[in-house]
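Supplementary Note 3. Input sequence used for the single-chain structure prediction.
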Amino acid sequence: MLHLPGKDKMRLSCSSSGTVHVTMDRVLIAATPSYDLYRHNEDGSTEKIGWIEKKLISFMDTFDVYMEGEGGFGVTGLFKPTPAYRIEGDFLDRNFSFKNAQGKIVARSNTDGW
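The predicted structure, written as discrete structure tokens, is reproduced below.
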């Protein structure tokens, strides 16, 4: 799949100050939807802190979150590091959970009353 950089971009910012803290930028060429994560520093610079990849085969929507510099090498196959987090659930209904590397749920998101 081919995606234009900057087209699929999300910025996470503070609601009170408007300061951008993290940017998710869609990877240009990838077999599955993938996003690079960039932290915005106080001096105006950015640094890549990790990436998110959608799992190709799963029973529900599943994304793996990898942290930069956490071991492994290369970007495919057996050489990837262990995901720091896994996000699973139904993203259309906004009902999903965040699990850490040990598989323990650390956060949930859901909408009630829709």
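The radius of gyration is 15 Å. The beta strands are 9-13, 20-26, 34-40, 46-54, 61-67, 85-90, 95-100, 105-109.
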